[in-house]
Write a structure and sequence with these properties.
With 131 residues, this protein is mainly alpha-helical. Helices cover 36% and strands 8% of the residues.
Length: 131
């Protein structure tokens, strides 16, 4: 099926908008499948807040990227990057890197004290997975 576009703007005719994901990777997977298979959207837009929730923010980001979603940062995403800790138990970049290194599928080594990544390969290729 060929996507339809507005003749006036050239924009996709059917857009699925996703927001406030908050690391809920399971529900996000179901929603993305529904948007593609049932709603047959031409594009997916994510309006942010991917982090700070009960699931895996790395998996959420990977699923959105795989779906070709156009994504903007929400306030929670900005807080993560800026290191703001206004929410108890919020995701933190250094914690995520340590978790990823502990479960690295490439080397299975523990992170060193000098680097949050377990090895150069993990850091460079992103082959590590979060458990």
């Amino acid at each position: 099926m060929r996507p339809s576009f507005s003749p006036a703007t050239g924009a996709p005719a059917r857009v699925g908008v996703v927001g406030d994901v908050h690391a809920c990777d399971g529900p996000l997977a179901v929603l993305l499948d529904h948007l593609r298979e049932v709603e047959r959207v031409d594009a997916i837009w994510c309006v942010g807040d991917i982090v700070n929730g009960p699931g895996d923010p790395d998996r959420c980001a990977a699923m959105l990227a795989s779906a070709g979603a156009v994504t903007v940062s929400g306030n929670h995403d900005r807080w993560l990057v800026e290191g703001v800790t206004v929410i108890p138990d919020a995701h933190r970049i250094e914690v995520s890197r340590r978790r990823r290194a502990r479960s690295c599928t490439a080397c299975r080594r523990a992170p060193s004290s000098s680097s949050p990544a377990a090895c150069a390969r993990c850091s460079a290729t992103g082959s590590a997975t979060t458990t």
